[in-house]
Amino acid sequence: MNIILATTLVIAVIGICVGAGLVFTGKKFAVEVDEREVAVRSKLPGNNCGACGYAGCDALAAAIAKGEAPVNACPVGGAAVAEAIGDIMGTRAGAMERKVAFVACKGTCDVTHNQGNYIGIKDCRAAVMAGINITDCNYGCLGFGSCVDVCPEQAISIRNGVAVVNRNRCVSCGLCAKTCPRGLITLIPESRIIRVQCSNKDKGPQVKKVCTAGCIGCGLCAKQCEFDAIEFDGTLARINPDKCTLCGKCAAKCPVKAITTTAV
pLDDT value at position 114? Predict the structure, then answer.
């Protein structure tokens, strides 16, 4: 009986010592947490998409609390989240226009041709690595939907062989842009509805052979623009958003309708 009692007392004493040691260690090596960081993190959406340039929402919250990132750094949260974080940090968020994903390709099955029936992994990145092309255009959307798979909001779908973005559902996380192996997807301000929806940099005659909706570099759009907003990447027309007034004259004159004026 005495042995059992002694053993119990020893175990109790050891438990108390270990507990006291843990409490002491915890206090001694405790890392102070910035209350503002915790508050900022509570306002972030928690997508952990990395669109802000940081590893995730925790990293962004820490950067904002330290003053290393602006209060409107989260593109997913938009103006509402920026304003809430601004209140925490005691600073104004400033004007912030919502961005949406844009696919620079109109190469549907109606305007280009498939090279054959593809049997294999339905992944755009795998197809590019293997040197596989589905349509005659070497620059267009492959249509396998890798962007669809990574979109957390189901804002992208494949229609007639080309990725299409639902602007109302897009939260501008940028995952689709990072996933597209051909760089066809970019994030643009929501108001910038006039864009050249083509990425083919070949000369006009070659473009016409592979896609009837591709930019042929004719220059008619540039001649119509009164604000010098049309620039060229080789023969591919580009619209400078800083100069564009959204008048739509370039789109009206484009013979192949490669310039879109709709919210796609």
Answer: 81
How much is the pLDDT for 249?
94
Tokens of 144: 């396998």
Tokens, residue 121? 């992994």
Radius of gyration of the chain (CA): 27
pLDDT reported for residue 52: 84
CA 13 to chain centre: 58
User: Whose CA is closest to 114, among 88, 101, 133, 97?
Assistant: 133
**CA–CA distances in Å: residue 71 to residues 10, 35, 76, 173:** 55, 16, 13, 16
Q: Which residues of the chain have pLDDT under 50?
A: 30
Q: Find how far residue 114's CA is from the centre of its chain.
A: 28
Do residues 223 and 248 touch, judged by C-beta distance below 8 A?
Answer: no
pLDDT at 146: 96
What pLDDT does residue 254 have? 96
Burial 183-217 (b: 16+ CB within 10 A, else e): ebbbbbeeeebbbbbbbbbbebebbeebbbbbbbb
Q: Give residue 78's pLDDT.
A: 82
137 φ/ψ angles, rounded to the nearest 5 degrees: -85, 125
Distance CA 47, CA 68 (A): 20
Domains in the chain with CATH codes: 35-89 (1.10.15.40), 99-260 (3.30.70.20)
